[in-house]
Amino acid sequence: MSYLLKAPVLEVSEWINTPAPLSLANSLAELKGRVVVIHAFQILCPGCVSHGVPQAIGIHNAFPRKDVVVLGLHTVFEHHAAMQPESLKAFIQQYRIPFPVGVDLARRGNHIPTTMHALNLQGTPSLIVIDRQGQMQLSHFGHASDLLVGALIGRLITEDVN
Q1: For the residues of 40-106, what is the DSSP string, one character each?
Q2: Does 18 score more than 90 pLDDT?
Q3: CB 82 within 8 A of CB 88
Q4: What share of the chain in percent tops pLDDT 70?
Q5: In what order do the strands lie in the sheet with 101-104?
Q6: Helices (H) and strands (E) in the chain, counts
Q7: Is residue 23 part of a domain?
Q8: CA angle 84, 90, 96 (to 5 degrees)
Q9: For residue 30, what are the CA distances in angstroms to 12, 36, 63, 132?
Q10: Would you call the peptide bond into 21 cis, given omega within 30 degrees of 0 as the criterion?
Q11: Distance (Å, whole) CA 20 – CA 3
């Protein structure tokens, strides 16, 4: 499904797998000028482990960093006690995730985290693609076709940003 909406900021409680944390308030603004791919996942989600994480790693490895940035968003809406940041750190190491992963900020009194709610995600895995101007071009729940995602990213890389 395609969107021409301005992407919201990522609201995370902490960043993992990055030497310097991305700005919690302006993370997408800092990345403007590059295509941003966000992989929303949970460590206990079978579809995330079998499809989403490998796809996100593949995107990270396939495109130049000057053009495409991949970010993980660990968005926990169930089994909260089992999916704490320490478990996520072990998961990141075990699956050799090479890109930064933000822990979606919990909302007081609500099991749906802040960024998941703002992006209106249906669940995990979800893939979000944001163009160089900061406009959301894709929000997909479930397994997205590698061919279609690659074609979209390739088109967004080559678009004139002026």
Answers
A1: EE-TT-HHIIIIIHHHHHHHHHHS-TTTEEEEEEE---S-GGG--HHHHHHHHHHTT--S-EEEEPP
A2: no
A3: no
A4: 83
A5: 5-6, 135-141, 126-130, 35-41, 68-74, 101-104, 12-16
A6: 6, 7
A7: no
A8: 130
A9: 15, 11, 19, 11
A10: no
A11: 30
pLDDT of residue 76: 77
Pair 102, 41: CB distance under 8 Å: no
Q: Is residue 63 part of a domain?
A: yes
Q: Is 162 helix (H, G, I), strand (E, B) or coil?
A: coil
66: containing domain = 5-18+28-118+134-157
Residue 88 lies in a domain: yes
Task: Indicate which CATH number applies to the domain containing 10.
Answer: 3.40.30.10
CA 86 to chain centre: 19
- For the entire predicted model, the pTM comes to 0.86
Is residue 63 predicted with pLDDT exceeding 70?
yes
Tally the domains of the chain.
1
In a domain, 124, yes or no: no
Cβ atoms of 147 and 75 closer than 8 Å: no
